[in-house]
């Protein structure tokens, strides 16, 4: 049976330093050299994922923006994408504005990925995000809502204190046109809302890859709410020890902490055991 292995990144394969540990790089690269079919499904952009995975020799197309984009980053080829139409952009922005929330807008123009925000409207969490990525060529300050919405948009990301984010999420989650994921930031105390169009899910992304590669079985690894729908469609699903308790209940099993190379150690023991 041909099995495709799919890992989430933040909180699962990556450490709290937003990278892959030296141990995981060594052991997973050895498995990849033996032909392990491993890829990933992440909320990150292509740029953000590639930076975090430095040193790991992954070659297969992967799922980005929680499923809004399936992209072959080796051959620079888009396989699937789901983006907002103009009406939905405007409607979502109006709802967010009513809660005094301004989003980070993740998308692309023909020549590059972009992360766009309204200059002068940065929340403390947004300021921290932008400072951490200072010098990133994707960062684009907009001076109007029109500029904010230029190009293809895959995801709105909003960051702030729990109470404000939760109030907005309790409205947005009922919009049938979107997927709205509410979760605590992996590395800080703020909360995030990730908003994508309805078809943009990790579940759809990994099912596409399963069919694309002619695989018979899907095995995945995750830690939080944006992995839930992926767990629903995988034959085996493993939650890292630091995962949300309710996700552990959905899992086939619980593996080691992300800080202790749980995914790499499981793959070392199980991937070629049959």
Give a quick set of tags describing it.
single chain, 274 residues, alpha/beta, 2 domains, six-stranded mixed beta sheet, 11 helices
Indicate how many domains the architecture comprises.
Answer: 2
General shape: globular
Average pLDDT number: 94
Q: What name does CATH use for the topology of the largest domain? A: Rossmann fold
Strand proportion, as a percent range, falls in 25-35%
Helix content: 25-40%
Structural class: alpha/beta
Q: Could you tell me the radius of gyration in angstroms? A: 18 Å
If you had to describe this structure to a student in words, what would you say it looks like?
- This protein has 274 residues and is an alpha/beta fold.
- The protein has eleven helices and 14 strands.
- The strands form three sheets. It has a six-stranded mixed beta sheet. The chain has a five-stranded parallel beta sheet with strand order 2-1-12-13-14.
- Helix 2 runs parallel beside helix 11.
Give a summary of the structure in a few sentences.
With 274 residues, the chain is an alpha/beta fold. The chain has helices at residues 9-13, 22-33, 46-52, 86-98, 124-132, 145-148, 162-172, 202-212, 228-233, 245-250, 262-270, and strands at 3-7, 38-40, 62-64, 69-72, 77-81, 104-109, 112-118, 139-142, 152-160, 178-184, 191-197, 217-222, 236-240, 253-255. The chain is built from 11 helices and 14 strands.
What is the strand and helix layout of this fold?
Elements: E1 3-7, H1 9-13, H2 22-33, E2 38-40, H3 46-52, E3 62-64, E4 69-72, E5 77-81, H4 86-98, E6 104-109, E7 112-118, H5 124-132, E8 139-142, H6 145-148, E9 152-160, H7 162-172, E10 178-184, E11 191-197, H8 202-212, E12 217-222, H9 228-233, E13 236-240, H10 245-250, E14 253-255, H11 262-270
Parallel strand pairs: 1-2, 1-12, 7-8, 12-13, 13-14
Antiparallel strand pairs: 3-4, 4-5, 6-7, 6-9, 9-11, 10-11
Helix pairs in contact: 2-11
